[in-house]
Each structure stands twice: as C-alpha cells, then as structure tokens.
Amino acid sequence: FFDGVCRWVKVNNMSVLQKIADIEAEMARTQKNKATMSHLGSLKAKIAKLRRELLSETKGAGGGGGIPGFDVARTGDARIGYIGFPSVGKSTLLNKMTSTFSEVAEYEFTTLTCVPGVVRYRGAKLQMLDLPGIIEGAKDGKGRGRQVIAVARTCNLILLVLDVQKPMTHKLIIERELEGYGIRMNTHVPNISIKTKERGGLTVSSTCKLTQVDTEVVTNVMKEYRMNSVDICFKEDATVDQLVDVIEGNRVYCSCIYVMNKIDQITVEELDIINRIPHNCPISAKDEWNLDGLLECIWEHLDLIRVYTKPKGQIPDYNEPVILKSDPTVEDFCNKLHRMMIKSFKHAWVWGSSAKHNPQKVGKDHVLKDEDIVQIVKKI
User: Fold this and answer.
1) DSSP secondary structure string, 291-348?
2) What is the pTM of this model?
C-alpha cells in the first residue's frame, strides 16, 4: 500500500511540475507591459498555488513523515546554515570555524547529511549547519535539495557559499531555488494588510502611489484565490510577487551573506569587482583569511545585542550575557531569563547607553541597548 501511495505521489508531482513548466513558458513568451500586467499576475498566482500543492503532497507521502529530513536539535542563540553547490568549501569553513569535523575531499557530494557545529562569539552561541551541496532543480526534488532547503527555512541566517572561480550565475541559480521554496533573503515582510469579510466585494486602498500594480491586477490575483470579499490596503509600493507572498502566508524572511570563498586563487583586481556585490564577505577557508571579518559580518546580519545581569550587591556578570534581538524591552529580557519572572516584576535598574543617567529606574517597557547592565527588583 505504501509503495502504491509513493508511486501515486511521484506521478502526481510530475504532472504538477509539468503544469508549472508550461505556465513559466507562457510567462516567458508574454511581453511585459501595462496591457499584460493583469494576465502575468494571474499566472504568478497559479504558480504559487501549484508550488504549495507540490509541497503539501510531498509532506503527506508517508502518512505524516514524507521525505526524511535532517533531524538536528536547535541549540544556541541563533542557527546559521551553509548553502551552496558541491565542493565550494562549506565543510572546510565549518572545520576552521568550529571544533567539529566535517569530511573534506576533492570529489563532489562529500557531505551527505547535516553536520552541526557551535561557535562562541561575543558571549553568544551560534549553531553552524554544514548542509549537503544542492544542484539546479533542488526545489523540484532533485538530489536532496528539498531536505537542504527545508532546513534553511529554520535558519536565522543563511551563508550562501560561492567559489569565486566559478561563474556568478551560480549565485542566481541558488537564489532561484531558495525563492522557489518560499525563502525571501535580505528583504522585509511586505507591508500589505488583507482583511476578509462576509460580503461587500473587493476593496483596494493604499497609503502611497502604486506604480507596479493596479486595481485590475489585484482583482485578477484575488479571483485566482477565490477571495472575493476582502479589504486590501497597500502601505508600500509593492509588486505582484509580494502580494502573492502575503496571500500565501508561508514565506520565510531571513538575512543572507554571500561568502566568496577561495580568494587566494584570484587577483586583487578581481577581488575589487567581487566586493561590489551587496552583502558579500570574501574569505579563504583553506588559508583562514578574513574569518574574523566573516564572524563580524554574521553578528551584524543577525542583529543581536548583549545584556548583562547584575545581582544586588554584586558586580555584573560579563562572562554570560543574555543574547536578545535588537531593540528588546525589559519584559523581553525577563522572559528570556524565565517566563514567570515578569509576574513578580516590580521595576529594574539599568546602566548603559539606554539610560538617561546611571543607574536609571525603569519599567518593563523600557527599550534596552547593546551592553546594557540590568538589575531586576521583584515584588515582595
């Protein structure tokens, strides 16, 4: 019975992939202008629905298991995944940055599973994941691409490792594979609100001038999703793709650093050209060049801060800071220490850049800054 279900899923997946290919071919043939904007918007909505169907069928193939993934427990303050083509230096980079050993060899696909490691930096524990190399077509199930990209969806930061000697089209291919699986890199969640209602039809409003969509385009996209009675408010000049992302609601937004490896094999002039790529960090994993710069870049993209605790009558604990996302409140700080602490919270004393004077008596809504010192006072 299980074999029959798997065969049915495989055949059905092939038909869905064929539909996606046909729609993409139609989009390639269609000229992009104002007259075809509405039609292209409908096609993009159809592709998004088919991809969702493809993912849901894959997950349900084994009665709940689907394709076996990489079972790696989440530890530390942030999770960072290494993504890239085979033999670009991901395992070498993990070996140099952590005490973990990941097999390195001259042939491709040396790493066949997820190898975790931990880096301590500025008091934070950063979990590094060396993932198997992906190939073109990974989002459609080629190789172990889906398992790799599924782990990437759980990461706080993606290190897209590239070989500087290979064509830069590799960067575009991997970006396309990740975006096809619902990962949006180095961008924000679109500021579009969609509220469903029982009746009243479709209402489109905006707080700014819309140059990339109009009412007709939005109407066609909503018809494709059979959402006929909704209020849509655009709070930024968004695209059709961003509208589809908000409707789907399953997109993952995370930061990405383009790690340009093997710079020891190129000239200074070529390195200057590579430095023009946004969010890049040139390194040589083999020779350990600029690994400190990579850690600094990782810290900036994770947007983390350190807050030190101070017990009453004692000096602050500078060895074990509490790691929080940028601009946290005192309430976030208490919840990180213990979820029940806020119930007995009375006030806090704060030393540091967020305080108007040292110390400052603050409430739970006070916003903390990097390297602040906090002393919590509980109710008696």
Assistant:
1) HHHHHHHHHHHHTEEEEEE--TTS--EEEEEEEEESS-BHHHHHHHH-TTGGGGEEEE
2) 0.83
